[in-house]
Amino acid sequence: MQIIQDWQGLAPLARGASVALGNFDGVHLGHRSVIDLARQQDAPLGIVTFEPHPRQYFSPDAPAFRLMNAEARANRMEKLGVDILYELPFTAALAGMSAEDFATRVLAEGLGVRHVTVGADFCFGKGRSGTAETLRALGDRLGFGVSIAPLLAIGTTEVSSTAIRRALTEGRPRDAARMLGHLHRIEGAVLHGEKRGRELGFPTANMALKGLHLPRLGVYAVKVDILTGPDAGSYGGAASLGVRPMFGQNTPNLETHIFDFSGYLYGQHLSIALIDYLRPEMKFDGLPALIAQMDQDCARAREILAEA
Question: Is pLDDT of 92 > 60?
């Protein structure tokens, strides 16, 4: 998959795609329906999205909300068979474009799109003045087709990033996965931590959560994909997502103990999939009690993963 972070001066081979347009936070089943509608036999499959997320741009001090960072979103798009990911920089210039300017300058002239698909609730342009129907009318005038995908529901629940965030906040990763169509994953580089886990007999891979919506704090059974380095592959594990109350209040992070693993992971990229919520964070009366609980957590996580 080719990742392009501009819409101007593109080479001919980077133009002429049939694209799905949106933020695609989480790349859930509703997003999948938009992407699938964009698949055409006579054109590359493209995604047009934005980085940073427009909500981050307009409200930089608001609580973190993203289900995926840019790396995780790109990895998911590649798995879906996307040919070109247009990750457009969301700048003041882009934010200030009218709906007509965006359709004309970015989609038609810049990317030379052949076809565009969006969700039924799609809005675009300065002040969110354009709708999916606005885009359809502009496409008719500018020479590209537009398809509008209906909103998707599972039973009585509309599939949305908001509903998925709620499920994760409540410690329901399996419900989130049903709406996502895949396991919720946290991806990024392994960072140096305080190495307490190693001292306790449970070495962990530490990852930052900056900018991401926080699932319910606590301990999870997880699947681990090591994406880079000599130990690349899939493993089981138990992960603590939180502030480590035994050792004072800290910035939330993800600490994953990978079962039956002894390699060196600093700087490598991991993808941690949340399978089941095991328990909330706790403060113990001393390290022996903490170690005993970690033994129980790992045993329970192994049981869950064996059934998954």
Answer: yes
